[in-house]
Design a protein that fits this description.
Pfam families: DUF8082 (PF26309). The chain is mainly alpha-helical. Helix content is 62%, strand content 0%. It has helices spanning 25-31, 40-47, 51-72, 77-91, 94-106, 112-120, 125-137. Helix 1 crosses helix 3, helix 4 crosses helix 5 and helix 4 (77-91) crosses helix 7. 21% of the residues are buried.
């Protein structure tokens, strides 16, 4: 993924990114200086990083914004199936029933984040960590 830029090559905030988007501090530390006017060298100087890190950080923020937007979308058949596969990888065949139970209880027009939260609430801490790793591998977390 390439970093969003203005027409002049100046780094810009990715589409969909807001001040409320949850990001790691290291990303916000750089994005705080990205205003669509400063070039990458100036942002790097202010953030005390290299221009390459600025570009990589803006690209990373775009990926985070994309995932955040995806989590607010309603659950689709494909996303429910992907979540089911991730749970099965962690708890075995019972994972299919866990996802089906949440969908039966809340309906299928819930945001993906709600499905993920409800399923994760049924897992141990170690299982949640494994579940998140599987979701990340599929681009869902």
């Amino acid at each position: 993924m390439t970093a969003p830029q203005t027409a002049e090559g100046t780094p810009a905030w990715p589409p969909g990114l807001t001040g409320e988007t949850p990001l790691p501090f290291a990303v916000w530390r750089v994005l705080h200086h990205v205003d669509g006017v400063r070039d990458a060298a100036e942002v790097a100087r202010l953030a005390r990083v290299t221009p390459q890190i600025v570009q990589a950080t803006v690209a990373q923020a775009a990926a985070w914004a994309s995932r955040a937007a995806q989590r607010t979308q309603p659950v689709t058949e494909a996303s429910a199936q992907a979540v089911t596969q991730c749970v099965i990888a962690v708890v075995g065949p019972m994972g299919e029933f866990m996802v089906d139970d949440v969908l039966d209880e809340l309906g299928e027009q819930i945001p993906l984040s709600t499905l993920l939260s409800r399923v994760a609430a049924q897992l141990s801490e170690a299982q949640v960590q494994a579940f998140v790793r599987h979701l990340r591998a599929r681009g869902l977390a």
